[in-house]
Write a structure and sequence with these properties.
The complex is a heterodimer of chains A (271) and B (248). Chain A is α/β, with parallel strands linked by helices. Chain A is 38% helix and 22% strand. Chain A contains 11 helices and 10 strands. In chain A, the strands form 2 sheets. Chain A has a 6-stranded mixed sheet with strand order 6-7-8-3-9-10, sandwiched between helices. In chain A, strands 2-1-4-5 form a 4-stranded antiparallel sheet, covered by helices on one side. In chain A, strand 4 (56-61) and strand 5 (64-65) form a beta hairpin. In chain A, helix 3 crosses helix 4. The longest helix of chain A is centred in the middle third of the chain and has 16 residues, at 168-183. In chain A, 42% of the residues are buried. By secondary structure, chain B is mainly α. In chain B, helix 3 runs antiparallel to helix 6 (90-113), helix 3 (22-38) runs parallel beside helix 12 and helix 5 (62-87) packs antiparallel against helix 6. The two termini of chain B are 42 Å apart. Classes of the chains: A alpha/beta (271), B mainly alpha (248). At the A-B interface, helix 2, strand 6 and helix 3 of A face helix 9 and helix 11 of B.
């Protein structure tokens, strides 16, 4: 679906943000991109939508090189909810905000109304339908941006730091939404530092450091790669830390660290 | 857009020019500005621009100044066209257009080599009200932040199918609404938050707050300031007595 082939990107300021990234994201996958600040995560996803064009290498979406198409055309397939909701809200009302992209894509009036209602119900924003999006709280604004994206039903949904400013309940709801999207065959890419949020989703985890991919695989495997995670300044989930600690105790319920790893990867209970 | 804006935004440098007393840098900027104003012929403006470019090269900011010139090219062309339409005089229209470039570039030279902190201290030395100085310097300091905001907003809206370059001029102007509203709202919210943060850190508690750095002009600053004044006087004298006949 999305193919990055040896992608490098150098900012106009001369900073090398991506340095030879090769990565394939298949349709229907749930992928988490993690890494320290400045690792190139957001730069990478901006390449998928054609907002940035690679300095070298290629990015293709469904076989189409992003250099040969517009962001508007790509955004029909790929919806991105950016980190800061204040960067996109401008309409007079919440429903107008959700309808903005749908109108840009030329959806019929009936379809726009239906999709707007669905999006607002999904994220618990129906009561603010006629309110200004600017008066919403930080968490509500964040949910509104997600509603704006999901309303046009893109095949790929990219969420950039979706849990920032969300309370525990909203995080749980967001997790459910991601699972729902995955179950309907959507490709979901989550850029996040929130490992505890990602862990229950058990996505494919791509770890980035200094513009490179340093680890890539199922969450249960990647989250056990202590050294790779440390070097990329990614904290391992508390569960992994707990079982590492337990495995080292003399009265450990595990025979050794390998058994702890097998427990985490296989889900079998300790003796 | 960010590339062009670089012509007015300070980035750290370590040239001799950067290390000059900010008052001297301001003096050089004002004198080149004044020289551009008193110039009566295009070749005189050319000399002023050439002087600025030499100073910019010495200050290792030639590329940045070139960006400023690129940024002013559109406005300069507009000035030329409007003047030519009204005066039908090619020479005076060109003079106004080139003078505009020289004026902007001389200002740019000061801003790209002077930190906002230095700018603040220079303004305070002129006994300007503290609040006015703070507001001006904060505005300068936030220019790159606003530029970055604008780029991020454009990215967010383009990802929702907005095509900024599509349609006629009216449609394009309308397409800017989703960019401008979040930009203005963010700026207003940010200014409110900044005001609260400043007040919570005792802004305004003292009428005469202590200054971290006290400027004392070094010998090199005095020599450069004197040289700048001499060059200006020579230029003024030349423009009005020696070089002027060449143009006749």
């Amino acid at each position: 679906m999305i193919e990055f082939r040896d992608v490098a990107y150098v900012h106009p300021t001369g900073v090398r943000a991506l340095d030879g990234v090769t990565l394939g994201i298949r349709g229907g996958e749930t992928v988490a991109i993690v890494g320290e600040n400045g690792a190139g995560k957001t730069t990478l996803v901006k390449h998928a939508t054609g907002l940035l064009k690679p300095t070298s290498g290629t990015v293709t979406v469904d076989g189409v090189d992003t250099r040969d198409t517009s962001t508007a055309a790509l955004s029909r397939k790929i919806g991105v909810a950016f980190q800061n909701p204040d960067h996109q809200l401008f309409s007079e009302s919440v429903e107008e905000e959700v309808a903005f992209a749908l109108r840009n894509f030329g959806f019929s009036r009936e379809l726009v109304e239906g999709r707007v209602s669905w999006g607002l119900e999904l994220f618990g924003l129906a009561e603010y339908r006629r309110s200004s999006p600017l008066i919403l709280s930080g968490g509500e604004k964040k949910r509104l941006t997600l509603a704006c994206i999901l309303a046009w039903d893109p095949a790929v949904v990219i969420l950039d730091e979706p849990t920032v400013g969300q309370d525990a309940l909203q995080k749980e709801k967001l997790g459910e939404t991601i699972r729902m999207l995955s179950s309907t065959g959507k490709t979901v890419v989550v850029v996040s530092h929130d490992i505890e949020f990602l862990w229950p989703l058990q996505p494919r985890v791509v770890v980035m450091k200094a513009g490179r991919v340093v680890a890539d695989g199922p969450a249960k495997s990647v989250m056990m790669m202590g050294q790779a995670l440390d070097s990329a300044r990614v904290a391992e989930p508390h569960l992994v830390t707990l079982y590492r600690a337990l495995a080292q105790r003399p009265d450990s319920p595990f025979v050794g660290p390998h058994e702890a790893r097998a427990w985490i990867e296989g889900g079998s209970a300790p003796h | 857009m960010m590339w062009l804006s670089g012509g007015f935004i300070f980035r750290s440098g370590n040239s001799r020019f950067h290390r000059l007393d900010p008052r001297v840098k301001l003096l050089i900027s004002i004198l080149t500005f004044a020289t551009a104003l008193i110039a009566r012929y295009i070749y005189e403006i050319g000399l002023v621009v050439a002087f600025i470019l030499v100073v910019a090269a010495a200050a290792t900011v030639l590329t940045r100044i070139a960006r400023t010139m690129a940024l002013t090219a559109t406005f300069s062309a507009f000035i030329f066209v409007v003047n030519f339409l009204f005066t039908r005089n090619l020479e005076s229209s060109s003079l106004y257009a080139f003078r505009f470039v020289a004026i902007v570039v001389s200002t740019s030279l000061f801003f790209v080599t002077t930190t906002p902190d230095e700018l603040e201290r220079v303004m305070k030395m002129f006994r300007l009200p503290r609040d006015v100085v703070f507001a001006f310097v904060t505005a300068v300091r936030f220019v790159p932040v606003m530029m970055l905001d604008a780029l991020q907003i454009m990215d967010a809206q383009k990802s929702r199918g907005l095509e900024l370059d599509k349609g006629n001029i009216l449609r394009r102007a309308r397409n800017m609404i989703p960019i401008l509203i979040p930009l203005v709202v963010n700026a207003v919210v940010r200014s409110g938050e900044l005001a609260e943060a400043m007040e919570s850190r005792a802004y305004g508690a003292s009428e005469r707050p202590t200054s971290l750095v006290e400027y004392r002009a070094k010998r090199v600053d005095k020599v450069v300031a004197l040289a700048a004044v001499v060059v200006f006087l020579l230029a003024a004298y030349s423009f009005y007595s020696l070089l002027a006949p060449i143009a006749l």
